[in-house]
Major facilitator superfamily domain-containing protein (Tuber borchii), 502 residues
Amino acid sequence: MAAEKELENGQFASLDSSRSQLQGSEELEKVSQSNFRNGLHEIIFVWVVTSAHWITQANLGNTIVPIRYIAEGLGVPPGASARQSWFAASYSCTVGGFVLITGRLGDIYGHKNMFLIGWLWTTIWSIASGFAKDEVQFDIFRAMVGIGPSIMMPNAAALLALAWTQQWKKNLAFVVFGALAPAGFILGAGWGAGITETGVRWEWIYWSMAIVTAFYAVASWWVIPETGGMNDFHSTGFDVPGSVTGVAGLALIFIALNGGSTFGWDQPKCGIMLGIGVLSLALFCWIETKVKEPILPMSLFKSPTFVAVAVSLCLGWMSFGMFQFYLPHFLMELRGESGLQATLHIFPIVPTGIIATLSAVYFLSRVPGYIIFGLSMLCFFLGQLLCALTPVDQTYWRMSFPAVVVITFGPDLSFACGSLVASDTLKPEQQGVAGSFVSTIINYSIALGLSLAANIERGVNPDGAKMLEGFRAAWFFGAGCAALGMVMTAIFSKGMSKKHAH
């Protein structure tokens, strides 16, 4: 997307003379200032737009931690964690699956318009989630909720990129944007646990979310300017066949993998859906080589380094999704903690996430990219390994706390470094779509990882009598994914060796 290209490159064409350069910079600053009435307007704008990120993560945390109350309300047995994983994974699937499409729609119909639609969509389907009568309805409604953040996230990035001409303001806004992710997950976890553990009906988790997102919709309409290209319409083509086949393929593969753990692989429907999903993705790849304006140009994959970064990101974030889902369950189901206690015990991801984000900003200009990217995979690996080896009766501070701290460095370091490494290996005109593709990988990988982990867990714990062994099997699988990411980083380290100056 054009806005994301501006963000990645961040450079203005050099002018012929120092005088014209000064005049040009003054003119650009005037354009930037004209987007906002005053400094307070800028601050409120950043708050409203970056809130899309914490809301995205809050919608995951508010379901994972109070999941036993939700499951009870929907008639799902307490030990059926494979069925419960649908509640979180269906949401992550659509968040990741639709990002490429919705970012492109923002380029065509205006980023502010799409951002507003994202808030309103989330509001409507959050209300519907509270009215779900069984787990199938709830899974469908949760998947529909996920489309809302998939609309908001790429268009929020575009709005932040277009709002200022001053690079330092863009950088600061994006640091805030990234740092809000762990805080959002914790806030959502405490939000859901606080509602259910005070005796309020679980449905109010989603109805209260609808109230908040409706407020943000109104605030976005009022705060986000129409100037500066933030709501421009562009009459460009849209890849409908590619969009349909791509999303259908991702959705069918997810449903098949998650359904295998729920219904059993002896059911023909799982294999049929998996086969159709793979064929749909193959058709998508063929279509993208034929259409004039593809949503994902296949030329991206001519770079072996980009492919290695994409696969490693997928493996690392698959691992992190297992941590997000299984650690709170370990604390609640096996250590007997309440949801609020479990939230408090995973709270260190907030300050650690901020430190990790600032560390990424500091080291990217001083250390080769493969070292930072490899370190992120090592953090994913060590965090999962610590979880897998933690005794149930051990104090939290011995191994659970270090696991929470260590693994939190994985997402922030991998996202920052992976995005820049991918940017280095691609042409300027490919920067925007590459950024959207990285977002797709991250969010869809969480759903994919939970699907595969649920299959492994059920294989170890088919009747619910070996919960600890099932959790550990999932964590060991997550550690293996991260280890494979380290190997790929080492193999392709030459293409990731660049340092990135501020």
